[in-house]
Amino acid sequence: MKKWSTERILTVGTVVVVFVVWFLVTAIGNVSETIIPSPASVWESFVDVAKDGYKGHTLLQHLATSLQRLVIAYLLVVVTAVPLGLLSGYNSKIRAILEPIVEFYRPLPPLAYYTILVLWMGIDEGSKLALLYLAGFAPVYISCVAGVIRIKEDYINGAKTLGANKWQIFFYVIFPAALTDVFTGLRTALGVEYTTLVAAEMVAATAGMGWLVLDASNYLRSDIVFMGVIIMGITGILLDRIIRFVEGKVIHWKGRS
Amino acid sequence: MSDTWKEKLYEPSDELISVENVNFKGQESRVEGEELISINNVDLSYTGNTGPIKALENINFNIFPGEFICVLGPSGCGKSTLLKILAGFIQPTAGSVKLDGEEIKGTDWHRGVVFQNPPLYEWFSVRTNVAFGPKMRGVPKEEYEKLTEEYLEKVNLSEFADKKIYELSGGMKQRVSIARALINNPEILLMDEPFGALDALTRESVQDLTRKIWWETGKTIFFITHDVEEALLLASRVIVLSRHPGKVIEDIQVNFSRQIIEEGATDIKFSPEFYKYREQLLRLINSQ
Q: How many angstroms away from the CA of B123 is the closest CA of chain A?
């Protein structure tokens, strides 16, 4: 087995300490189960929900429902925000059209415009996907613009002196040169979409991890809330790992030039 | 290609031995109307914080086919600006620059550029970087693949063709950059302090390579440097610019580069003549 680095030990140590403190507080301290459920009861509710489901859906179904929403919205972001962001960085006129819109809605709390989305698109999947999509669009768009603007002029001038036309420069120079920033945006977007997930599942949902947590909290089932939050946290880390893995494969030159 | 251009380059070289009255001998020795590039009354100003700043003033000279011109000058004299004008990255404020009688309006592949920090594309291999120009210009695949091997060979990088850019040393990167520019067969190769960031040994070897390529291909080269020795070891003609605003204050022909190639005079930089030229040019630049 590979020897663990100090950093690795520290990371694992932190997790262990959090669990131990959690265990000790609930075991020794006289804390109500509603405020801090014990690790044991959270585990029990996990086994319970995994086996019998929660309000008509199994745990996997809840998770799958959320992930499906997340992934669809995310793919929509990838195929729209990346090209629009890169084009906006490349062409100041396109940027002049799109930037004010993105700049305006980006700082708004998602809940503020969710009502409008629901009015427009109904209480079903449409408005949920739209909310997640909008949440993910802004960070990807902004980092794509920044990525293109940051490209050294010589890269583009060099391509021109070698005979490349505008579109060739875009595909063979701008796009790959901005990829590092594109991926930073994609990772941020995933995080933002995740944080928006609970909000998106507040209205007229019957399944999903966000809905599960909200519903359980209505009944003060802290054990289920804790379980839901932990599962969301772990899947979040896993999804980020996947993006980082893809990034490493695509940008093989990263950090080496 | 006939070798007459090589003869023509050095016609007046006998008179050059007297360094005391070197000036503007270059142009008279060339046939009027045969110039590749003519630079006429070029001025360049840009807007600074305290009003317009003049970077170049009244630049006038012609570049003849096959010349290896080194432009020397103190830093901030606008020598890179002049190269940018020739490349078409910027337009002069006044005056004109013509290539084969036609005004240079923008950037195109007829003028290849080698930058100080080679902007090679890390996402491509060495080979794809070299092939970039002809590929973009729509040269048939078979043809550009053949050309690529040929030019990789020219810069001694054949065995590194499949390497990634980050695996190369600084000197190798600059060689890729040279091959990448040359493969388009541009009318002139513009080099902007290309070896400034290299260590002394690497520098010497890429200088040798550049000289060899110049001599073998007959390519016209316009080379910016702040290193007097480098200029004398490479150039067939040295142009000196003054500081703020850049003006041509010296324009001489030299033949050390030819001597190195034709006579293998590798120790020429220790000769009294070389020393004299070097001192003269250094004094001129330092008096700015």
A: 7
Q: What is the pLDDT of residue B30?
A: 58
Q: CB distance A154–B119 less than 8 Å?
A: yes
Chain B nearest C-alpha distance from A253 (Å)? 6
A34: tokens are: 């509603």
Yes or no: is domain A37-250 CATH 3.30.160.20? no
- Total structural domains within chain B: 2
Using a CB–CB cutoff of 8 Å, tell me whether A257 touches chain B: yes
- Percentage with pLDDT > 70 across chain A: 98
pLDDT score at B76? 73
Neighbours of B35 (CB within 10 A): 20
Could you tell me the residue range of the domain that residue B28 belongs to? Answer: 4-15+23-110+186-286
Q: B residues 158-177 near A, CB within 8 Å? A: 164-166
Q: Is there a contact between B154 and B41 (Cβ–Cβ < 8 Å)?
A: no
Reported as a single tens digit per residue, the pLDDT across B104-144 is 888 888 899 999 888 899 999 999 999 998 999 888 889 88
The CA distance from B56 to B43, in Å, is 5
For residue A160, list chain B residues with Cβ-Cβ distance below 8 A: 107-108
pLDDT digits (tens, 9 = 90+) for B48-72: 788 788 888 888 888 888 889 999 9
Tell me which residues of chain B, numbers 133 to 152, contact chain A at a CB-CB cutoff of 8 Å.
133-134, 136-137
Predicted confidence at residue B7, as pLDDT, reads 54
Return the residue of B nearest to A163 by Cα.
B109
The verdict on B191 and B266 lying in the same domain is yes
Domain membership flag for residue B191 = yes
ipTM tops the 0.95 cut = no
B119·A158 Cβ contact <8 A = yes
Are B220 and B273 found together in one domain? yes
Question: In terms of domains, do B125 and B89 share one?
Answer: no
What does the alpha-carbon distance between residue B42 and residue B85 come to, in Å, rounded to a whole number?
A: 9
> Which of B107, B115, B164 is the closest to A253 by Cβ?
B164
Cα–Cα distance for residue pair A1/A201, rounded to 1 Å: 43
Pairwise CB contact (< 8 Å): A257 & B165: yes
Specify whether B69 is located in the same domain as B105. Answer: yes
Query: Do residue B137 and residue B277 come from a single domain?
Result: no
The Cα B252–Cα B62 span in angstroms is 13
